[in-house]
Input
Amino acid sequence: MVAFGVTLSSEEHPPLELVANARKAEEAGFDFVSISDHFHPWVTAQGHSPFVWGVLGAIATATERIEVAVVHEIWPNGGVAGQLSQDLPTFTHFDQAAEMVTEEDATASVPCGADVEPILDSVRSFLDAGYDHLYFHQIGPDQDRFLRFWTEELQPALQDVAGSG
Output
Protein backbone atom coordinates (compact mmCIF):
# COMPACT_ATOMS: atom_id res chain seq x y z
CA MET A 1 0.00 0.00 0.00
CA VAL A 2 1.21 3.49 -0.82
CA ALA A 3 1.35 6.09 1.97
CA PHE A 4 0.60 9.69 1.04
CA GLY A 5 1.91 12.60 3.05
CA VAL A 6 2.27 16.35 3.02
CA THR A 7 5.30 18.49 3.80
CA LEU A 8 5.06 21.10 6.51
CA SER A 9 7.42 23.79 5.36
CA SER A 10 9.06 25.30 8.43
CA GLU A 11 10.57 28.04 6.27
CA GLU A 12 7.13 29.32 5.30
CA HIS A 13 5.02 29.01 8.43
CA PRO A 14 5.31 29.90 12.14
CA PRO A 15 5.23 27.07 14.73
CA LEU A 16 1.55 27.25 15.74
CA GLU A 17 0.50 27.26 12.09
CA LEU A 18 2.69 24.20 11.42
CA VAL A 19 0.97 22.35 14.28
CA ALA A 20 -2.47 23.39 13.02
CA ASN A 21 -1.55 22.27 9.49
CA ALA A 22 -0.43 18.85 10.81
CA ARG A 23 -3.73 18.45 12.64
CA LYS A 24 -5.66 19.44 9.49
CA ALA A 25 -3.57 17.01 7.40
CA GLU A 26 -4.49 14.21 9.80
CA GLU A 27 -8.18 15.16 9.58
CA ALA A 28 -7.92 15.23 5.76
CA GLY A 29 -6.66 11.64 5.72
CA PHE A 30 -2.94 11.98 5.02
CA ASP A 31 -0.84 9.07 6.27
CA PHE A 32 2.18 11.13 7.30
CA VAL A 33 3.66 14.61 7.44
CA SER A 34 7.27 15.52 6.88
CA ILE A 35 8.89 18.72 8.05
CA SER A 36 11.93 20.62 6.92
CA ASP A 37 14.64 21.54 9.40
CA HIS A 38 16.75 24.55 8.45
CA PHE A 39 18.82 26.96 10.48
CA HIS A 40 17.41 29.86 8.44
CA PRO A 41 15.01 30.25 5.50
CA TRP A 42 16.41 29.64 2.00
CA VAL A 43 15.26 33.09 0.82
CA THR A 44 14.00 36.17 2.65
CA ALA A 45 10.43 35.80 1.33
CA GLN A 46 9.98 32.57 3.29
CA GLY A 47 10.45 34.38 6.59
CA HIS A 48 10.47 31.58 9.18
CA SER A 49 12.81 29.05 10.74
CA PRO A 50 11.47 27.69 14.04
CA PHE A 51 13.22 25.09 16.18
CA VAL A 52 11.74 22.08 14.42
CA TRP A 53 12.28 19.58 17.23
CA GLY A 54 10.03 21.63 19.51
CA VAL A 55 7.44 21.84 16.73
CA LEU A 56 7.58 18.05 16.34
CA GLY A 57 6.81 17.66 20.04
CA ALA A 58 3.83 19.99 19.69
CA ILE A 59 2.61 18.05 16.63
CA ALA A 60 2.88 14.80 18.60
CA THR A 61 0.60 16.18 21.32
CA ALA A 62 -1.88 17.69 18.85
CA THR A 63 -2.37 14.64 16.62
CA GLU A 64 -3.38 11.04 17.26
CA ARG A 65 -2.39 8.76 14.38
CA ILE A 66 -0.42 10.60 11.74
CA GLU A 67 3.25 9.66 11.33
CA VAL A 68 5.87 12.41 11.30
CA ALA A 69 9.02 12.37 9.17
CA VAL A 70 11.84 14.89 9.05
CA VAL A 71 12.81 15.30 5.70
CA HIS A 72 8.52 30.88 -7.32
CA GLU A 73 8.68 33.77 -4.96
CA ILE A 74 8.83 31.59 -1.96
CA TRP A 75 10.75 28.55 -3.32
CA PRO A 76 12.86 29.73 -6.27
CA ASN A 77 15.91 27.84 -4.98
CA GLY A 78 14.40 24.68 -6.48
CA GLY A 79 15.37 26.15 -9.85
CA VAL A 80 18.98 26.93 -8.88
CA ALA A 81 20.97 24.42 -10.89
CA GLY A 82 23.72 22.05 -9.83
CA GLN A 83 26.16 22.43 -6.99
CA LEU A 84 25.43 26.16 -6.66
CA SER A 85 22.29 25.37 -4.64
CA GLN A 86 24.48 23.57 -2.08
CA ASP A 87 27.32 26.09 -1.90
CA LEU A 88 25.55 29.36 -1.14
CA PRO A 89 26.43 30.33 2.44
CA THR A 90 23.57 32.68 3.39
CA PHE A 91 19.97 33.42 2.48
CA THR A 92 21.18 36.69 0.93
CA HIS A 93 23.21 34.65 -1.55
CA PHE A 94 20.16 32.47 -2.29
CA ASP A 95 18.12 35.64 -2.90
CA GLN A 96 20.76 36.82 -5.37
CA ALA A 97 20.97 33.48 -7.19
CA ALA A 98 17.16 33.18 -7.25
CA GLU A 99 16.95 36.39 -9.27
CA MET A 100 18.21 34.31 -12.22
CA VAL A 101 15.43 31.70 -11.82
CA THR A 102 12.29 32.09 -13.92
CA GLU A 103 8.87 30.77 -12.91
CA GLU A 104 9.27 28.11 -15.62
CA ASP A 105 12.59 27.02 -14.08
CA ALA A 106 11.01 26.68 -10.63
CA THR A 107 8.01 24.67 -11.83
CA ALA A 108 9.53 22.62 -14.66
CA SER A 109 10.15 19.43 -12.67
CA VAL A 110 6.94 19.26 -10.63
CA PRO A 111 3.23 19.28 -11.49
CA CYS A 112 1.67 22.53 -10.29
CA GLY A 113 -1.90 23.77 -10.12
CA ALA A 114 -5.38 22.43 -9.61
CA ASP A 115 -5.41 20.05 -12.60
CA VAL A 116 -5.38 16.53 -11.13
CA GLU A 117 -4.13 14.72 -14.26
CA PRO A 118 -0.49 15.98 -14.28
CA ILE A 119 -0.27 15.10 -10.58
CA LEU A 120 -1.65 11.61 -11.22
CA ASP A 121 0.81 11.12 -14.10
CA SER A 122 3.66 12.04 -11.78
CA VAL A 123 2.37 9.71 -9.04
CA ARG A 124 2.06 6.86 -11.56
CA SER A 125 5.70 7.29 -12.56
CA PHE A 126 6.81 7.06 -8.92
CA LEU A 127 4.59 4.03 -8.27
CA ASP A 128 5.97 2.35 -11.40
CA ALA A 129 9.47 2.95 -10.00
CA GLY A 130 8.52 1.18 -6.76
CA TYR A 131 8.02 4.11 -4.38
CA ASP A 132 5.73 3.39 -1.42
CA HIS A 133 5.78 6.81 0.30
CA LEU A 134 4.95 9.98 -1.65
CA TYR A 135 4.49 13.46 -0.25
CA PHE A 136 2.88 16.64 -1.52
CA HIS A 137 4.06 20.15 -0.80
CA GLN A 138 1.72 23.11 -1.01
CA ILE A 139 3.90 26.20 -1.32
CA GLY A 140 2.47 29.40 0.09
CA PRO A 141 0.12 30.52 2.81
CA ASP A 142 -3.15 28.89 1.65
CA GLN A 143 -2.75 25.43 3.17
CA ASP A 144 -6.52 25.12 3.77
CA ARG A 145 -7.24 25.45 0.05
CA PHE A 146 -4.76 22.67 -0.69
CA LEU A 147 -6.31 20.42 1.98
CA ARG A 148 -9.76 20.97 0.43
CA PHE A 149 -8.29 20.10 -3.01
CA TRP A 150 -6.73 16.98 -1.45
CA THR A 151 -9.97 15.86 0.20
CA GLU A 152 -12.36 16.68 -2.64
CA GLU A 153 -10.33 15.88 -5.75
CA LEU A 154 -6.83 14.50 -5.37
CA GLN A 155 -7.26 11.86 -2.65
CA PRO A 156 -10.24 10.17 -4.40
CA ALA A 157 -8.35 10.14 -7.71
CA LEU A 158 -5.26 8.70 -6.00
CA GLN A 159 -7.33 5.89 -4.48
CA ASP A 160 -8.25 4.86 -8.01
CA VAL A 161 -4.60 5.05 -9.14
CA ALA A 162 -2.89 3.47 -6.13
CA GLY A 163 -5.62 1.51 -4.40
CA SER A 164 -4.73 3.48 -1.24
CA GLY A 165 -7.24 3.95 1.54
Remarks:
- The two ends are 8 Å apart (CA to CA).
- The CA atoms of residues 8 and 35 lie 5 Å apart.
- The domain at 3-151 is CATH 3.20.20.30 (TIM Barrel).
- Helices lie at 15-28, 52-62, 84-87, 91-98, 103-107, 116-128, 143-162.
